[in-house]
């Protein structure tokens, strides 16, 4: 019988170099690139917190200290804001450092997304399911965060959950693609996963998005997974192993997704959140409407 256990922890791998955004990421983490006035990583953390997560495990690498500093207190800044009576900004700065309990572990060598997740294993209980959120995929849904939708699906099935989105046929080669048994509503049982297939070979257009609920056997499969030709340990390979002996589900979340790991996706997200910013939306909308190129 499957054991019900609440999901209170999230692993957030942030050790990548962000080479697509060079030279901007030469001296700052790509996760700290800002959408208007808030870094991408904060949107990811807030999604987790709004979904009931209390403990955030950030898997970092070289030159990622700025992420730790962002979610820590800054006493000098707080003092200056208090002295200048900028109460609203001070309240926001204080809120950031109190979003969750933060833990940091290092991925010393870039050996794949699965290897990054394994660095957090010591902070996860033996029977504990855990969320995994990658910093590139940002989903906007003010009513119910994508992760919360996935947690509700997990509570129903008690099996691993992979976030899914249908993409255009000519884009399947950019994603992991799922072969599924169509289920009821948004949840489908996965038969197989194919890494970046050609449009002709793809079993569907249901793409893997960087949000997961993983169970202890997925972590165990990562520990025994064989590295790829490039020496990387991949999360998709662990899922391929686990799906042979238990159900794994694809969940088609509801919300607007932005791939902030690409320049065009980041620009789209900037425009989207700029048009939703309470202080800027009117002026920004006017500018976009009248812009001359």
Question: If you had to describe this structure to a student in words, what would you say it looks like?
Answer:
With 293 residues, the chain is an alpha/beta fold. It has one domain (9-290): Spore Coat Polysaccharide Biosynthesis Protein SpsA, Chain A, CATH 3.90.550.10. 32% of the residues lie in helices and 23% in strands. It has 10 helices and 13 strands. Helix 7 (216-224) packs across helix 8. The protein is globular, with a radius of gyration of 20 Å.
Fill in the keyword field for this structure.
32% helix, globular, 293 residues, alpha/beta, Spore Coat Polysaccharide Biosynthesis Protein SpsA, Chain A, 13 strands, 10 helices
Number of strands: 13
Within CATH, the superfamily carries the name: Spore Coat Polysaccharide Biosynthesis Protein SpsA, Chain A
CATH fold title? Spore Coat Polysaccharide Biosynthesis Protein SpsA, Chain A
Percent range of helical residues:
25-40%
Tell me the name of the CATH class: Alpha Beta
């Amino acid at each position: 019988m499957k054991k019900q256990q609440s999901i209170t922890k999230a692993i957030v791998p942030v050790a990548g170099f962000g080479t697509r955004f060079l030279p901007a990421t030469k001296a700052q983490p790509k996760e700290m690139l800002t959408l208007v006035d808030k870094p991408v990583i904060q949107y990811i953390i807030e999604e987790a917190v709004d979904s009931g997560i209390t403990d955030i495990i950030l898997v970092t690498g070289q030159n990622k200290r700025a992420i730790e500093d962002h979610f820590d207190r800054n006493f000098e800044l707080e003092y200056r804001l208090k002295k200048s009576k900028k109460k609203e900004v001070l309240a926001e700065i204080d809120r950031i450092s109190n979003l969750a309990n933060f833990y940091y572990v290092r991925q010393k060598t870039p050996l794949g997304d699965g290897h990054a997740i394994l660095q957090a294993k010591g902070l996860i209980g033996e029977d504990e399911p855990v969320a995994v959120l990658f910093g590139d995929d940002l989903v906007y849904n003010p009513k119910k965060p994508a992760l919360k939708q996935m947690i509700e699906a997990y509570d129903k099935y008690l099996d691993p959950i992979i976030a899914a989105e249908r993409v255009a046929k000519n884009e399947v080669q950019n994603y992991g693609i799922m072969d599924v048994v169509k289920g009821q509503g948004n949840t489908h049982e996965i038969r197989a996963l194919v890494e970046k297939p050609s449009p002709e070979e793809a079993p569907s257009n249901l793409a893997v998005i960087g949000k997961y609920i993983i169970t202890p056997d997925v972590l165990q499969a990562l520990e025994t997974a064989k590295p790829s030709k490039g020496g990387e340990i991949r999360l998709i390979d662990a899922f391929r192993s686990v799906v042979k002996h238990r159900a794994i589900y694809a969940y088609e979340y509801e919300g607007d997704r932005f791939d902030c790991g690409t320049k065009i996706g980041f620009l789209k997200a900037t425009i989207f959140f700029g048009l939703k910013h309470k202080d800027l939306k009117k002026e920004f909308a006017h500018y976009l409407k009248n812009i001359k190129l």
